[in-house]
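Thread: Newbie trying to understand structure tokens

Hi all, I'm a second-year student working on a class project, and my supervisor (Dr. K.) asked me to get a predicted structure for one chain before our next meeting. I've only ever worked with sequences, so writing a 3D structure as a token string is new to me. If someone could post the tokens and maybe explain what I'm looking at, I'd be very grateful. Here's the chain:
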Amino acid sequence: MIPVTLGTERLTLDQPATADRELIAQYCSDPLFESYMTTPWPYEVKHATGFVTDYAPMGWRTNAEYTWAIRAEGVFVGVIGYREATRDIGYWLGAPHRGHGYMTEAAGAVVDWLFAQGRDELAWECVVGNTASAGVARKLGFAFTGVAPSSQPARDGTPQPSWHGVLTATDSRAPQPGWPTS
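---
Reply by user tm_fold:
Sure, no problem. This is what the structure looks like when written as tokens:
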């Protein structure tokens, strides 16, 4: 598929670019990434280079994964993606950009686009304890479905316990009860 650019009132979602490498490396060096993400650790510019030049473009070319850079007023603030094999969305924001509602806005645009493309159900998951990610999924209307092994293994290859959720195209998109708070 040809990469698609999405827009919201405050954000542009487009392709991660070579110019984003330094910020990607900086943001992915956040200690929270060691605990909650499967990105390489420690994260370096070489990892960001591979991400923007190989990984993200390959996902679009093969229709395996769609990855967007999130930009607020033209500034790179984070990433959101969708994996076709697991039909799930995943996302992260750089620390300076958290708490502004950017991720809920960006994820809403991606969810809307995916449903418009004919997906009828989307999944979400995060490592147990990642309440920020869970909060975004809850705000989007995902229903919490419980704890199960992650579809993405930990850095050491082992399964990791993860929170899971699901959203269908016909769901109300209102926050659902039953979400963990810690």
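A couple of things are worth pointing out once you decode it. The chain has one domain: 6-168. The longest strand covers residues 75-83. Feel free to ask follow-ups in this thread.
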